[in-house]
C-alpha cells in the first residue's frame, strides 16, 4: 500500500484547513451538479417506504481535515432529504451516519474537533487507504471523493531504480520525462483506480451512488501537458537548483518522486469499463482556469501546494529544508506565471462522475 | 455535556498506552467471563443462517488509545466467531466492523496508528460522549465498555458553588466530604448512567448484547469508602499542601473536583431497572486487591493515576504544576500505603454485567 500521504494537519498558517481554497472553489462549482444528480438519480427503495426510520450511510473518501468535507457532506444530506421527501409518502428523515475516511496519517484529531456542532448526522472516522476495502459489503448508500483520486498508492518502482530504463533522474514528476516514466505512472494509475473502483463496487449497496470530483487534463493531451503537474514540477526545479548549490544531495533529489497522476476523463472511464456493477450515470467536465496573472491567485495556489506537499517532502528531505525550498518555489512560480512558461493554462479541468451500483444479476 | 475528558495520548512515559496495566489486569480476568458469556448468550438470528456474508458491528465505548481496547475487541470477535460456527450450518465468518469510541479530545491519531496490522475487522473511530447517542437506531450487535463508566459527564454544579450547601471546599472528590456533596455526586451518577443506558437501548439491535466492566465498591459501603476514590483524594491532599505553601492559589484548588463516582453493583442495577428493553443476563463481581504493600504495584498505580488525571489537572492548574504535584502525590501514596491510611483495601471490586437488548413488544 506504500506510504501514507496526509495533508498538513492542525490550524497553523501552512495547514490544509487554511490552504484548501482551490479545492473549495472546485467543490462549490460541483455542488449544484452534485445536488441535482442526487435528486435525479437516487432511488429510494421500497423498503424505505415504511414508517420505520431508516439509516443512510455516507462516506467521504480522502476527506483530509476540513472544512471542505463538511460542506460536501451537507450538500449530500440536503439533497438526499429532498429526494426522500419527494419519493416517500409518510416521510420521516433517515438517520445519517457519515464516515470520514483518509490515510491513517491524516490528522483525525483536528478533523473531529472541527465537526460542525449543529450537524444532523452521526460522525465516524475511518483510517486507511481508499484503494482497498474500508467498509462491509453492500453497507454504504452514498460515497463521495473530491480532489483525492489523483494521489497514487505509491511512486511506481521502476521510476526510482537507477538501472531501470524508467529511472526519473532530476525530476519529481513525469513532466518532461521519458516515455518510460510516463508509461510507468500511467500503469500505476490504472492499477490504483481499478483497486478503488472494485472496492467501492463491493461496499455500495444495491442502487447506491458514488460521486467523484477529481482533477483531469483535456482529452487528446499528453500526461505531461497537465498544468497542475507543471506547477508541481516547479518544486523539482527548485530542488535541482538547491542540489547544484550543494544545499541538498543530488541523490536525495533523484530518489524523490510525487505519487500523483492527472488523467483524462476517458482514461478514468476506460478503467471503469472493466468494473462490474458500476455504471456511469453522469459525466461532466468542470473548467475553471485559475488566473495565474493575478498575484493573489498565484499565492493561494502556492500556499495550497505547501499544505499538500509538506508532509511527503518533510519525510524525504527533513523539515529544515522546507522554508527555503518553498521560498524558492514561490519565486519561481510567480516568475513562470509572468513569463508564460506554463502551457495550456486555459484548459485546467475537473472531472465530475456520478456512478451507480447496479444489483448483481 | 461538560468538558471532554481524555487519557494521556501519544507514546511517552506518562502516556495511557504505557500506564494502563491496572486496566489490563481487570480486563484479563474479565476476558474469560466475557468470552463464555458471548458463547452462552449470543443469539444468532435466523436471517444470519444464509449463504450471504453478514455484518457484525461491535463498539468499544471509552476505548482510550490502546492497547487494552484491541485485546477486548479480539476476545469479542473470537467468541462471536465460535458462536456463529456452532449455530450456523453453512458457516461463513461475518464481516466485523469495530467502532472505537471516546471523547472528541481522545488521541484518535495514536489509536489509529496502533491498530493491529493483522486485524480481521474494519476499524472506525467515533468521537463523542457515550452518555448520549452515537450510533443509528438498532445498528449495533455488540457493545463493550471497560473502566470508563465511573467518569461522569461533569462535576455536579452544586459542588463548585461557593454559596451552595454542597460546596466542596478543600477536597477534590466526595471522600471525607459532607453528605450534601455525596448526594450531589450520587445524583449526577444516576443521571449519567440513565443517559448511557437509554442511548444503548436505542442503538443495540434486537437481541444485541452489551458487556460492561467498571470499578465498583462493596455493597453496604458508603461512597466515600471506595478505595479508588481514596487513592484519588490523595491528589487533593497534595494540592492542599501546595496551596498552604503558596505554590497554587487556594481558590483554584477549591474550584477543582473530579468528575468520578464509584457505585455499588446495586446502584448500577437500580438505574437499569428503569430502562426499557435492557435485561441483565449476567452479573459478577471481580475482586483483585492490588498489593499496596508491594512498591512496584504502588508505582504502577501512581503512573496510572497520572496518565488518567494529567489532562484535566493540566486544564485547570496549568502544565507547570504537574511534575511537582505528582512527586508529592507519589510520596504521599507510598507513605499512606505503608501506614495503612487507606481503608478496606481488601475490598477493591469490579462489576461485570452482560446486558441484552430485548425486542420491542
TrEMBL record, chains A, B:
Domain of life: Eukaryota
Keywords recorded for this protein, A-Z: Magnesium, Metal-binding, Methyltransferase, Transferase
Pfam families, A to Z: Methyltransf_7 (PF03492)
Region named Disordered: 1-26
GO biological process: methylation
GO molecular-function terms, A-Z: metal ion binding; S-adenosylmethionine-dependent methyltransferase activity
Protein name: Loganic acid O-methyltransferase-like
Native source species: Juglans regia (English walnut)
Upper taxonomic lineage: Eukaryota, Viridiplantae, Streptophyta, Embryophyta, Tracheophyta
Gene name for this UniProt entry: LOC109012543
Amino acid at each position: 500500500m506504500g506510504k501514507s500521504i496526509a495533508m498538513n494537519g492542525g490550524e497553523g498558517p501552512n495547514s490544509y484547513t487554511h490552504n484548501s481554497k482551490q479545492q473549495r472553489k472546485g467543490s462549490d462549482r460541483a455542488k449544484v451538479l452534485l445536488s441535482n444528480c442526487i435528486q435525479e438519480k437516487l432511488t429510494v427503495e421500497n423498503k424505505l417506504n415504511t414508517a420505520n426510520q431508516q439509516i443512510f450511510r455516507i462516506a467521504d473518501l480522502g476527506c483530509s481535515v476540513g472544512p471542505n468535507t463538511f460542506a460536501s457532506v451537507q450538500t449530500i444530506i440536503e439533497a438526499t432529504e429532498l429526494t426522500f421527501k419527494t419519493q416517500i409518502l409518510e416521510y420521516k428523515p433517515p438517520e445519517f451516519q457519515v464516515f470520514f475516511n483518509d490515510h491513517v496519517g491524516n490528522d483525525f484529531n483536528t478533523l473531529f474537533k472541527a465537526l460542525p456542532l449543529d450537524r444532523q448526522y452521526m460522525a465516524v472516522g475511518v483510517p486507511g487507504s481508499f484503494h482497498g476495502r474500508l467498509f462491509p459489503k453492500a453497507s454504504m448508500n452514498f460515497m463521495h471523493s473530491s480532489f483525492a483520486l489523483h494521489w497514487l498508492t505509491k511512486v511506481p518502482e521502476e521510476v526510482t531504480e537507477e538501472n531501470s530504463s524508467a529511472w526519473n533522474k532530476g525530476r519529481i514528476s513525469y513532466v518532461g520525462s521519458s516515455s518510460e516514466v510516463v508509461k510507468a505512472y500511467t500503469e500505476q494509475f490504472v492499477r490504483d483506480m481499478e483497486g478503488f473502483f472494485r472496492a467501492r463496487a463491493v461496499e455500495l449497496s444495491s442502487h447506491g451512488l458514488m460521486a467523484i470530483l477529481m482533477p483531469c487534463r483535456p482529452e487528446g493531451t499528453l500526461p505531461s501537458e497537465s498544468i497542475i503537474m507543471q506547477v508541481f514540477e516547479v518544486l523539482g526545479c527548485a530542488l535541482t537548483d538547491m542540489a547544484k548549490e550543494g544545499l541538498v544531495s543530488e541523490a536525495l533529489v533523484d530518489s524523490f518522486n510525487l505519487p500523483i497522476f492527472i488523467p483524462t476523463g476517458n482514461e478514468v472511464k476506460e478503467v471503469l469499463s472493466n468494473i462490474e456493477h458500476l455504471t456511469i450515470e453522469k459525466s461532466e467536465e468542470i473548467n475553471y482556469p485559475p488566473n495565474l496573472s493575478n498575484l493573489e491567485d498565484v499565492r493561494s495556489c502556492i500556499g495550497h501546494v505547501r499544505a499538500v506537499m509538506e508532509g511527503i517532502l518533510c519525510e524525504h528531505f527533513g523539515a529544515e529544508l522546507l522554508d527555503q525550498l518553498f521560498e524558492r518555489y514561490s519565486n519561481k512560480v510567480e516568475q513562470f506565471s509572468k513569463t508564460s512558461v506554463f502551457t495550456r493554462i486555459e484548459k485546467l479541468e475537473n472531472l465530475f462522475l456520478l456512478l451507480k451500483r447496479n444489483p448483481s444479476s
